[in-house]
């Protein structure tokens, strides 16, 4: 299974929804919390080209945010990416 990294914030409902989807699928992921860590948020923004959370990577692929993750699931493409 590909490594999954989720940049998130504690009080972000989109972060919670994204993590819930991954947990329902039994996916282990590394969570990087950006709260109170401007240098970590800046690193995430540099990598993703976005400043909002969550920002999700599966392997080397930047998935994007919560809506992007759920769109992959609806399209039936998330499992292939996770197992790729």
UniProtKB/TrEMBL annotation:
| One MF term in the entry's GO annotations | glutathione disulfide oxidoreductase activity
User: Carries keyword DNA-binding?
Assistant: no
InterPro entries the record matches:
GLR_AS, Glutaredoxin, Glutaredoxin_subgr, GRX_bact, Thioredoxin-like_sf
One of this protein's Pfam families, by short name?
A: Glutaredoxin
Question: Can you tell which superkingdom this protein's organism belongs to?
Answer: Bacteria
Biological processes, Gene Ontology terms = cell redox homeostasis; cellular response to oxidative stress
Q: What family is this?
A: Belongs to the glutaredoxin family.
This protein is called what? Glutaredoxin
Species? Geopseudomonas guangdongensis
Q: What is the lineage of its organism?
A: Bacteria, Pseudomonadati, Pseudomonadota, Gammaproteobacteria, Pseudomonadales
